[in-house]
Amino acid sequence: MIDFAHLRRYRENNRIEAKRATGGLPESIWETYSAFANTMGGVILLGVVEKADKSFETVDLPDPDGLVAEFWNLVNDTRKASVNILTRHDIAVRRAEGRRIVAITVPRADRRDRPVYVNGDPYMGTYRRDGEGDYHCSRETVQAMMMDALEESRDARLLSWLGMDALDERTVRSYRSLMQYLRPGHPWETLPDARFLCRIEAARETGKDTYHPTAAGLLMFGKEEHILLEFPEYSLTCQEAKVSGGNLFTFYYRVWRKLTELPGMRKERADEEMTMERALRDALANCLINCDYRERGGIEICISPDRITMANPGSFRMDVDRAKAGGSSDPRNAGLNRMFRLIQVSEGLGAGLARIYSVWQRLGLPEPVIEEQFSPDRIILCLPLEICGLPAVKPMEGNVSLRNIFGEKRLQMQTIIEEATRNISVTEQQLSLLPELESCDLSGLLEEMCREGILTRNGQDGEIMYSLRA
């Protein structure tokens, strides 16, 4: 991380802290240890001072080896530090400018070890890093870290004070219809709604024919007024998709439909792993699945021809570089992850972020940028869309992305399901006015969906009405 042969090039920042330490191990080192561990990691330099021009200069340390021994003893004392997250390789005596200094490399702590605190009190001894300094964490921030440290998923909690009427029946029907289409013949297909919701961990049975939603079920299918009772900071916004609020299932598909309208989307084989469409699906799913719905700020998605930004409350639960490498999955909301996986939105294999970076590199686009903010915790993913040497491909007319991922017919069926969800019942004439259905055999498609049990057909005042099967 640091080239000790050119130490003067460096400045104190959110990853580097210099301390004189000529009078022994400074007490402030523990605040910095906690701050680096709870933020993004960093290096503590002992025997280094910051001059007036902000450049570094080494000083003569009387006993560098003694400082290392003292630090190692104290960091293993739980009365001083709640946990030692270092190895012997993280503490070393280095030579810089002809002098011996001590370099302590503090990694970002695993979420199961956070909060890393000092002096025996998590509420008084937990710190984070901001710019060049360490700041004391609020009680709310400490509690959020403690919640993340639990093995149980954030959204697994049973909401026994809520009944099943807190869930929106039309959203549940829409989800079930989509799952039925994607997984025909699934053994849960014929279950009553309550038992189906228990199978997907959106609800639990607490007595004979008595059911209550889980936090995951409320977020995915709930009526907004009930969601806000449990999650007062809950907020979903995407102005470009003309959507604000609602439950996660409805929000996902409205935003996804807007993403597919971006100019410059390219047609690629639907079964390919490394497509922009697949990467965007990963990004949107990650934003919803890894959000801390109790934190301030809410989910905000902005879509423009030159960039897409997705922001959600909550911190990374693992090191960002490890997440980029892929292969590691630690979702904050495992229940939501399961529900999205059942409708082929999320894979749950930890490949999402790695795929996003690989796809952007393959297409010659500027590298995506991840910004992690603290107090309140927030993750912002920026996906640039400026064309930089993009390989020549033939553009595809119309709505590209959903066609590629779901197939032409699946997109058309999903459009009908969404319209029937919003309006309870629809006519063929109403559906024919939708741009997504202009080019299809609408009568034949409606007939097929009725045969498959997705829709029911009823006559009303001489007009045929189509509704989702109850």
Q: What characteristics describe this protein?
A:
single chain; six-stranded mixed β-sheet; 470 residues
- Terminal CA distance: 59 Å
How large is the radius of gyration?
27 Å
Q: Strand share of the residues?
A: 15-25%
Outline:
elongated
Overall pLDDT level:
85
Determine the number of helices (DSSP H or I, runs of at least 4 residues): 16
Unreliable spans:
267-271, 388-406
- For this structure, the quaternary state is single chain
* Number of E-state strands: 19
How would a crystallographer describe the biggest sheet? 6 strands, mixed
The amount of helix comes to 25-40%
Which structural class fits the helix and strand makeup?
Answer: alpha+beta
In the sheet with the most strands, the strands line up as 12-11-13-14-16-15
Task: Write a concise synopsis of the structure shown.
The protein is of the alpha+beta class and 470 residues long. The protein has 16 helices and 19 strands.
Descriptive overview:
By secondary structure, the chain is an alpha+beta fold. It has 16 helices and 19 strands. It has helices at 29-38, 64-75, 139-149, 169-182, 193-199, 215-221, 224-230, 248-259, 276-289, 320-325, 334-342, 352-362, 400-406, 408-423, 428-432, 442-451; strands at residues 16-19, 42-46, 48-50, 56-58, 91-96, 99-106, 127-130, 133-136, 203-207, 210-213, 236-238, 243-244, 299-303, 307-313, 369-373, 378-384, 425-426, 455-460, 463-468. It has a six-stranded mixed β-sheet with strand order 12-11-13-14-16-15. Strands 1-2-6-5 form a four-stranded mixed β-sheet. Strands 17-19-18 form a three-stranded antiparallel β-sheet. Strand 13 and strand 14 (307-313) form a beta hairpin. Helix 9 (276-289) packs antiparallel against helix 12 (352-362). The chain is elongated, with a radius of gyration of 27 Å. The chain starts with 15 loop residues before the first strand and ends with a strand.
